[in-house]
Specification:
alpha+beta, 13% helix, globular
């Protein structure tokens, strides 16, 4: 099971293991990490799973689709070059250990 590290806006760290093939949003929701809401359930219809991918991991994940880039425009917190929608990042062995930081707010 790949490990994902979620860092809350206040610096609190949560390390969880999630099933391979699952996405980072569901890993947070299933493990009670409150910084990711995932209101649309991963349907790429909201931006309540916005996160910042640690820059060391950016080249190890697929780039965002045009639809994801457009949806990020509606994020409640600042959009940065490493902003992603966590529902669009599946985790497998190559992403084991990925680190994401959660924004201050999702609404």
């Amino acid at each position: 099971m790949p490990k994902v590290t979620y860092i809350d806006h206040d610096g609190t760290t949560h390390e969880v293991q999630i099933d391979a093939g699952e996405n980072i949003m569901r890993g947070a929701v299933y493990n009670g990490i409150e910084g990711i809401v995932g209101e649309c359930g991963g349907g790429l219809a909201c931006a309540t799973c916005h996160c910042y991918v640690d820059e060391a991991w950016l080249d190890r994940i697929d780039p965002p689709s045009e639809a994801e880039v457009q949806m990020l425009e509606s994020a409640a917190s600042e959009v940065k070059p490493n902003s992603r929608l966590s529902c669009q990042i599946p985790v497998n062995a190559e992403q084991d250990g990925i680190v994401v930081t959660l924004p201050e707010k999702q609404y």
